[in-house]
Design a protein that fits this description.
Two copies of one chain form a homodimer. Chain A is globular. Chain A is α/β, with parallel strands linked by helices. Chain A has two domains: 249 residues, 3-Layer(aba) Sandwich (Rossmann fold), CATH 3.40.50; 96 residues, Orthogonal Bundle (Tyrosyl-Transfer RNA Synthetase). In chain A, the strands form two sheets. Chain A has a seven-stranded mixed sheet with strand order 4-5-10-9-6-7-8, with helices on both faces. Chain A has a three-stranded antiparallel sheet with strand order 1-2-3. Helices cover 52% and strands 12% of the residues of chain A. Chain A is built from 18 helices and ten strands. Chains A and B meet through α6, α8, α9 and α10 of A and α6, α8, α9 and α10 of B.
Chain lengths: 388, 388
């Protein structure tokens, strides 16, 4: 591995397993050696989407990439591509977990391509001695219902649990495993000699879906995941596949601080997809880190610091799709015309609106479950294939 | 791991991946901490087999064990047990490879128990960068035909390739993998930081069949394999399974030397199951290491040293089942009445007899193939189960 695996200076730190401090994304791009999403690329995508650009790409949340230009070229020239994302199942999914899925769904709508969603129940189980297979299996099921609710095309989306799909993947997994040694996965995944052999092996399983088709694979993910895919990019071509392309997002700040990334291990910092309206309102009103001033008088006089204000960032990142509306909020809040309580109320309303819609769609997920996992057009094809 | 993983002194060395020198089996038992097969155990097995003891147990080839007494107790008290052996597929199988299968088949006949035979095509492929999956898959097929020819009960034997059966094993594999770390498999399997992650993971796959039934599992294998099973014995009970029992064989000496063990990587030292009669005769006459004297005159006068004579040892180990006949050969050859050329001829004839029978049975293997792998009574049950 010639590339840098972590970025750390006095102000912030980004590794695939830790994000702390106030991230300097420009510096991250330089250090990771990725590319900024250029105006040309944005124009190209805008043309294909007929001007209806997703808020996350309009607002620069997805800001960096590898080979996204080649993906667009493959698309333009008829070779096509496919999308791959995944999830390590957990007890509950929070808003931050939705980001790659929402964006992936949008990409599927725009480009009409296959999406593969790997549920890494094996990795989750092996990661923590306290977890049982029964737990991780139940989490997987519940998370899949949330993912289905995002609205993927059931005939072009294959959601699979590693423990179930392993037989179809395993020959290709062995080919990949053979190209990775302990030293490499140790450095990239932050493992050591006390790490269990399942976790050491897991990178091969994570890489396999990038080779599900003989097309380029695009992975939407937060930028901290980039080092994982460098292993894939080192070994893909010798095995006869494309290097994985990536499109990287910034981190949604946790509710209680404008630093780091949202983590489900700090419950008050996250809004769960299962949170009821009252809970959401309470969490936002009580915990959301504010860039506003300490008193109404000071706020009227000085206005809020948008750069550290979490309610504003959440609205900007995800919840306020309307550009003129977000500009109005920015202007009024930073000038002191809008108070902290007011922007928090706007956010709470928007979050509850999304969660309300999500819950409605999720109620129908159970009946679509078999289609995404086994019976849909793509799923049926995938179960008939053994990748080798 | 508190137990010793290798035995090495000035004269010999035994690790799971290397056997050199003249092995002192008594010392090996002490150092490995296994048990000698006692008279009591032999009597017990003799009762069950109605006095028809297999040559390999009569002649002390299978000489050491772990928990074989408990296996017999479980059998006597109706709890039963099962047998497990396996094979890393290779281009050709030689006579030495047959030993555990011949003995396992005999145990199946005597105790009427299930046999599981793991074909480790995954491990073989990942072990060597030069191998392709196509090669290891073809080797697996050919080796399975040889194994079927040994004569196992098709309704109580399940032969499976790891790459195919992985999905059914994988949940339990993850439970085992979780209990083994890099340091442990490094020490036990002779791996290091440059080892690929597939090989690091493989021990979990090798252990899983010991837990296919909630009964004690008996593994017939050469004693150099013992350290592998110590990992299983350390983790089995916390996972709710029995510690694997083992019955250990000595090593069949290679044709060209009385030291070490037969290896298929030195072609002239091995007799392959596919060798034609002329080839067998030529190999034995030309290469078999002799304990006889350099000239006929000296042989007549001094006789042969049976301890280093490979033709005698092969006859004793496997090929001359008749106790009075092997005694006659021993007496005549050690006294000088029999010449080296004569004992070699006897061996060649015996080897060709076994190979002739093997080839006949192997011709029928192809039609029994599906039964052992998919359609037999046990195979069908196994494909319906997911082990977790």
């Amino acid at each position: 591995m010639s590339v840098l695996l972590r970025v750390q200076d006095d102000d912030f730190k980004v590794t695939p397993w830790e994000v702390t401090g106030r991230v300097d994304y420009e510096r991250l791009i330089q250090q990771f050696g990725t590319q900024k999403i250029s105006k040309d690329i944005l124009n190209e995508i805008s043309k294909i989407s007929r001007g209806k650009m997703h808020v996350m790409i309009r607002r620069d949340i997805f800001f960096s990439h590898r080979d996204l230009d080649l993906i667009l070229k493959d698309y333009a020239e008829g070779r096509g591509f496919f999308l791959y994302t995944g999830r390590a199942p957990s007890l509950g999914m929070h808003i931050g977990h939705l980001i790659p899925f929402l964006f992936t769904k949008w990409l599927q709508d725009v480009f009409d391509v296959n999406v593969y969603i790997e549920i890494t129940d094996d990795e989750k189980f092996m990661r923590n001695q306290d977890y049982t297979l029964k737990q991780t299996s139940e989490w997987a099921h519940q998370n899949i219902l949330d993912i289905i609710a995002v609205g993927f095309n059931p005939d072009k989306t294959f959601i699979f649990k590693d423990t179930e799909y392993i037989r179809n993947m395993y020959p290709l997994v062995t080919s990949i495993a053979k190209k990775l040694n302990f030293s490499q996965v140790k450095a990239t995944f932050g493992l050591d000699a006390s790490s269990n052999i399942g976790i050491l092996f897991y990178p091969a399983i994570q890489i396999v879906p990038t080779m599900f088709e003989k097309k380029r694979c695009l992975i939407p993910a937060a930028i901290d995941q980039d080092p994982y895919w460098r292993l894939q990019r080192d070994l893909a071509e010798p095995l006869g596949y494309y290097k994985a392309a990536e499109v990287h997002s910034k981190f949604l700040p946790p509710l209680a601080s404008s630093d780091g990334k949202m983590s489900s291990s700090i419950p008050e910092s996250a809004v769960y997809l299962s949170d009821q309206p009252k809970t959401v309102e309470k969490k936002i009103m009580k915990y959301a880190f504010s860039g506003g001033q300490a008193t109404t008088e000071l706020q009227r006089k000085l206005g809020a610091n948008l750069n550290v204000d979490v309610p504003y960032q959440w609205l900007y990142y995800i919840f306020e799709d309307d550009d003129s509306e977000i500009q109005r909020i920015a202007s009024e809040y930073s000038s002191g015309k809008m108070l902290t309580g007011e922007i928090k109320k706007i956010l709470a309303q928007k979050v509850n609106q999304l969660l309300e819609e999500h819950r409605k769609k999720r109620e129908k997920s159970e009946e679509a479950y078999l289609r995404f996992l086994y019976d849909g057009k793509l799923a049926r094809q995938m179960w008939e294939r053994v990748h080798s």
